[in-house]
C-alpha cells in the first residue's frame, strides 16, 4: 500500500471519528477523540494499515526518547563543564590561602614581596572568574537552544503543543481564583484536505508556514502563537479584553483571506475559521481549550472564514 492510499484510509477514519463526536455533541478533546478513533481503527483497519500504525508509533516513541536523551545529555554536559570551569577558581583560592598562611612579616622587603605575589594571585583569580563566566554564558545559551528545539514546531517555526502547555499552565494555575486578562484563539485552516489534494503536500506545508508567520507578525511581542496540531493553531493574547480579541482575530482572518498565494503558477486561496474565548476565574486549561474549541466548531458550521466568540 503506497503512502497516498494509507493517508486516505487514515483520513477516512479521522473524518468518521469527528462525525461521531459531532453527532453525539462530545467535545473533541484528545482523550475523547483517541477513544473514538481507536475503536473505528480496530474495526476498519486492514493488516497493512495496522502495520503502518505500528511503524509510526515506534518512530514517534523513538523520536520522543531521542529528544529526552538529547536534553539529559545536554544537562549532564552542562554540569560537568560547570565543575571544570570552577576547578581553576578553587585551585587559585587554595594557592592564595597557602600563600597567606606561609607569609613572613620579618622585614619590609619581605612584606612588599608578599603583596606583589598576592596581587599576581588575585589577577589569576580574576582571569579564572572571567573564563568561568564565559563558560556559564555558553552553557546557558546551549540549554536555551535545547529547550527551544523541544518546544518549537520544526515546520512552521512557532511553538508546538508542548510549548503551549508549558507556557500557559503556570498562568492558568496563578489565575485559579481570579479572572486573567488573557484570551485564547483557536484558528483552523478551512478546507485544508482539499488544499493538500489539489496542490500537494508541499503546498500544504507552505500554507502552514505562511499562516504561522502571518499570525506571528500580527500579534504583539508578549503574545504567542503555537501549532496546536495538524492545521490548527492556538494564539494566546495577554493583557487583552473581549473587544480587542475580536478585533485582532478578525484582522488576522481578513489578512489571510486577502493574501495572494501562488504555488506552481496556481493561485491558492486560503481562509481560516477562528474560535475565541477569554479566561474566566476558576478555569482549568481544559476549560479554556474546551470553550475555544466550541467557538471554533461554531465558526466551522457558520460557512467557515468567520470568527466566533465564547466569553462565558
Automatic annotation (TrEMBL):
Membrane-spanning parts: none
Cited InterPro entries: Diguanylate_Cyclase, GGDEF_dom, Nucleotide_cyclase, Rev_trsase/Diguanyl_cyclase
Pfam families: GGDEF (PF00990)
Annotated CDD domains: GGDEF
Residues of the GGDEF domain: 180-312
E.C. designation(s): 2.7.7.65
Biological processes, Gene Ontology terms: cell adhesion involved in single-species biofilm formation; negative regulation of bacterial-type flagellum-dependent cell motility
Reactions accelerated catalytically: 2 GTP = 3',3'-c-di-GMP + 2 diphosphate
Catalytic EC class: transferase
Gene Ontology molecular functions: diguanylate cyclase activity
Gene Ontology cellular-component terms listed: plasma membrane
Name the record gives this protein: diguanylate cyclase
Organism: Sulfuricurvum kujiense (strain ATCC BAA-921 / DSM 16994 / JCM 11577 / YK-1)
Amino acid at each position: 500500500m503506497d503512502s497516498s492510499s494509507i493517508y486516505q484510509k487514515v483520513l477516512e477514519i479521522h473524518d468518521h471519528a469527528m462525525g461521531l463526536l459531532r453527532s453525539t455533541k462530545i467535545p473533541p478533546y484528545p482523550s475523547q477523540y483517541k477513544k473514538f478513533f481507536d475503536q473505528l481503527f480496530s474495526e476498519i483497519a486492514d493488516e497493512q494499515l495496522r502495520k503502518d500504525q505500528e511503524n509510526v508509533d515506534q518512530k514517534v516513541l523513538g523520536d520522543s526518547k531521542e529528544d529526552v536523551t538529547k536534553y539529559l545529555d545536554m544537562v549532564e554536559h552542562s554540569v560537568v563543564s560547570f565543575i571544570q570551569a570552577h576547578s581553576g577558581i578553587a585551585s587559585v583560592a587554595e594557592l592564595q590561602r597557602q600563600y597567606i598562611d606561609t607569609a613572613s612579616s620579618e622585614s619590609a622587603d619581605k612584606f612588599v614581596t608578599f603583596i606583589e605575589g598576592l596581587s599576581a594571585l588575585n589577577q589569576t583569580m580574576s582571569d579564572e572568574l572571567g573564563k568561568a563566566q564565559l563558560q556559564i554564558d555558553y552553557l546557558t545559551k546551549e540549554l536555551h537552544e535545547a529547550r527551544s528545539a523541544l518546544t518549537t514546531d520544526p515546520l512552521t517555526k512557532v511553538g508546538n503543543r508542548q510549548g503551549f502547555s508549558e507556557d500557559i499552565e503556570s498562568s492558568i494555575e496563578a489565575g485559579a481564583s481570579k479572572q486573567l486578562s488573557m484570551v485564547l484563539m483557536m484558528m483552523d485552516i478551512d478546507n485544508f484536505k482539499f488544499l493538500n489534494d489539489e496542490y500537494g503536500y508541499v503546498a500544504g506545508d507552505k500554507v502552514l508556514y505562511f499562516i504561522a508567520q502571518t499570525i506571528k507578525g500580527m500579534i504583539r511581542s508578549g503574545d504567542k502563537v503555537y501549532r496546536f496540531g495538524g492545521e490548527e493553531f492556538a494564539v494566546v493574547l495577554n493583557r487583552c479584553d473581549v473587544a480587542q480579541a475580536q478585533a485582532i482575530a478578525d484582522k488576522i482572518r481578513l489578512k489571510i483571506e486577502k493574501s495572494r498565494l501562488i504555488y506552481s503558477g496556481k493561485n491558492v486561496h486560503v481562509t481560516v475559521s477562528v474560535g475565541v474565548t477569554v479566561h474566566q476565574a476558576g478555569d482549568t486549561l481544559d476549560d479554556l481549550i474546551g470553550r475555544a474549541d466550541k467557538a471554533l466548531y461554531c465558526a466551522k458550521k457558520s460557512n467557515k472564514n468567520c470568527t466566533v466568540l465564547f466569553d462565558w
